[in-house]
Amino acid sequence: MSSTDLLVIGAGPAGLMAAIKAADEGLKVTILESMPRPARKLGISGKGRGNLTNTAPFNDFLKHFNNEGRFLKSAFKAFFNTDLIIFFEQEGLKTVEERGGRVFVASGKATEAVACLHRAAEKRKVTIYTGTPAKELIVKSSQCYGAITTDNRTFYAGSTLLATGGLSYPLTGSTGDGLRLARLCGHEIVPPLPSLVALKPEVSLPSAIEGIALRNVAVELRCNGKKTGEEFGEMSFLDGYLAGPVIITLSRKAVPEMADGKRCEIIVDLKPALDYAKLDKRILRDIEENAGTTLENIVAKLLPAGMRQFCLQQTGLNGQIKAAQITSEHRKILRNWLKELKFTLCGQGPWEQAIVTAGGVSTRQVNPATLESKIVKNLYFAGEILDIDADTGGYNLQAAFSTGWLVGQSIKKEKP
Description:
This protein has 416 residues and is of the alpha+beta class. The protein has 2 domains: 2-193 and 357-414, FAD/NAD(P)-binding domain, CATH 3.50.50.60; 198-348, no CATH class. Helices cover 32% and strands 26% of the residues. It contains 12 helices and 18 strands. The protein has helices at 13-24, 58-62, 73-78, 81-90, 110-123, 177-184, 245-259, 276-289, 295-300, 305-315, 328-339, 395-414; strands at 2-9, 29-32, 51-54, 95-97, 102-105, 127-129, 134-140, 143-149, 154-162, 189-195, 199-201, 213-223, 226-238, 241-243, 264-269, 341-348, 356-361, 379-381. Strands 1, 2, 6, 7, 8, 9 and 18 form a 7-stranded mixed β-sheet that branches. It has a 6-stranded antiparallel β-sheet with strand order 11-16-15-12-13-14. A 3-stranded antiparallel β-sheet has the order 3-5-4. Strand 4 (95-97) and strand 5 form a beta hairpin. The relative contact order is 0.19.
């Protein structure tokens, strides 16, 4: 049996930051982590490079979250992107800002951010028990007094923080245990869904386009025929899925819409710099300049190699007809395909591929000013376990760090 001021369940970014802040405020802190090492998910963030935050201004930053980030205002006011950058610099970790305001670990190694947080916690004499999952919270008369681990050890605490993450990347420890504990305490759980994830087309993709990356394309999401989102940038075809930055971003809207039973489609404009009339003129010019060639060769001037046969198969056009035989109807079919390449969706990638979890502990039952439960005293929540999710680009990690910091700060304020 052990006793501590703050018991943190989960040694991810939110849990570690809460522990560090609480320890700075003079509290005795203990962390229970189910995995053999802390913050494994942070160690693979940003494709292994550690996209820690984003330099977007406060109001713009909030717009990247569900519900316009209203719940997170207090957390971000307490500890925001510049604060995080300064914190890491003071702890010996350099960062660098890149395109789109994304802030990465300067060395390009996310594991260095993990090591930095671990050192910071140890320096403050935070006790970390790895390989020690919590199986139940000690709750009596609507008040939390700590937790019991799977090996039946009891940890009493003045305050307890659930920072176990969601369900994405379960091999890193995000297995939903915290959601189960919260539910047992009476908390409402917004059904979790994979977010920032590849999307599955209804019709299988041909092997010829596997691995192709399309740059500078405009992509639109339509659900039940209504436009619900659009992005410009890069997409790719990987393992039978639509992937890449623009698809990952649109998945935040597509996945819940599909879960609601709506028919969702991805519409790709492969030539967004040209309207229909200008694209037709471009095709006509290619035909006039290459009258002796074939339609297949005309298509080759418009698309990457692997996409050419895909285009001909999708449109039903005969690639062997001579350029001089290409009619206005042929041009219309080709033009429309290039401007409106359509994929009907039937699902998304598995939890193992999802970057974050949408859904989680309902924010309606959590005080945004302190992140304490409104129904169980001395129980707090931080990070991805909450029903907060954002676009890719460092926003989700900042939310984890900020909510963790706010918990560490809030508990101190409540001490006599």
